[in-house]
Amino acid sequence: MLYKKCQIIVLIPIFLFHVVTSFAQQRDSRVREYLSPIRIVWQQESQLIQGAEYLLRSGHGQANLVNNELCKLSSTGQQHPAILFDFGKELQGGLQIVTGMPASHAPVTIRVRLGESVSEAMCDIDEVNGATNDHAMRDFVISVPWLGVLEVGNSGFRFARIDLLDDSAELHLKEIRAISIFQDIPYKGSFRCNDERLNQIWQTGAYTVHLNMQDYIWDGIKRDRLVWIRDLHPEVMTVNTVFGYNEVIPKSLDLIRDSTPLPQWMTMCTYSLWWILIQRDWYLYQGNLDYLKEQKGHLCDLLQLIMTRIGEDGLEKFNDNEGRFLDWPSCENPLYTKSFH
């Protein structure tokens, strides 16, 4: 009897696990790494900041009751301290904020600014300097808890600025860490020459595409965090030569196909042409004939649609509202430049 009860007890959590996972619509295959800042670039009202150096130590993401060896920011009615952190490299993700135990248990209001450069993390959104919150929030106000952990942000950045906004308040910071979210995949392709600057440029380009390989492949980790089919071809060729097969490419191609059923163009007519070229090059590099066969219906119908825009003289006859779009024009003829970006 006892043996049967033990069997039931063991089977219950297994059953519950299968029940819970059966409801999951998507599981994240990416990894998360936590990075402590490597330096403090700048401080505002530094006389109101104590122990900032503690935030440069490695953390573990857990609040505790000890409440020592932490950074304390204290504001007045007119003075509000701020700190700018450098996490050492560009990343895609957010911030983890671990707090301590100030005298007041009330949540504390802070402003967070993320930037790929020091100047971006220091600037305001004023419709003049180009800084925006489009696609990803890089400038926002939040409340942090007393003795807790809060994870915020989802953008591309290296630097982060934190301002204490409340008047006559105290903020205890035990840890500030960047959350780097990425695919943990090997670099199969490589490049090396006798020009170290050129080697660094290649590595930066490969790393940039790596950061864009998230749930889908994006145009950028800050803006645009979109499957931007017009710009996807150079990224796909980078994936082909540096990383090899990766599911984000067919997943992204399928997304834009399903989002724009025919006779719609994939935003613009030229974007649909790029989808065809990407399908060709993905097959030539990866040789996945089964995937290409899955595209046959859409490819054939799309090509038929394109043929209706070809005149008897062999020239394209796309309508002006169908979105001819070519980058970086070298011709100043208005007939052509109206189609250029």
Automatic annotation (TrEMBL):
<protein>
    <submittedName>
        <fullName>Glycoside hydrolase family 78</fullName>
    </submittedName>
</protein>
<dbReference type="GO" id="GO:0016787">
    <property type="term" value="F:hydrolase activity"/>
</dbReference>
<dbReference type="InterPro" id="IPR035396">
    <property type="entry name" value="Bac_rhamnosid6H"/>
</dbReference>
<dbReference type="InterPro" id="IPR012341">
    <property type="entry name" value="6hp_glycosidase-like_sf"/>
</dbReference>
<dbReference type="Pfam" id="PF17389">
    <property type="entry name" value="Bac_rhamnosid6H"/>
</dbReference>
<keyword id="KW-0378">Hydrolase</keyword>
<feature type="domain" description="Alpha-L-rhamnosidase six-hairpin glycosidase">
    <location>
        <begin position="188"/>
        <end position="330"/>
    </location>
</feature>
<dbReference type="InterPro" id="IPR008928">
    <property type="entry name" value="6-hairpin_glycosidase_sf"/>
</dbReference>
<dbReference type="GO" id="GO:0005975">
    <property type="term" value="P:carbohydrate metabolic process"/>
</dbReference>
